[in-house]
Amino acid sequence: MLANIALHGMEEELGITYRRYVKKDKGLVHEIKSSHTLVRYADDFVILCRTSEEAQSMYLKLKPYLQKRGLELAEDKTRVTQITEGFNFLGFNVRKYRVGEKYKLFIKPSKESVQKARDKIRETFKRMRGSNVETLINELNPIIRGYGYYWHHAVAKRIFTKMDSYVFNKSVKYLKGLHPNKSWKWMKRRYFKPDITGQSRDKWLLTAPDKLVQLTKMAWIPIIRHEMIKYTSSPYDDTLDDYFRYRDIKEFDSSNVLSRQKMAKRQKYLCPLCRSTISNCNEPLEVHHKIPLQHDGNDKYTNLQLVHAVCHKDHHKRHPVEGPLPTIKQLLKEVTERSKNREIKSSESTGRYENQIS
Question: Mean per-residue pLDDT for 283-301?
Answer without folding.
Answer: 91
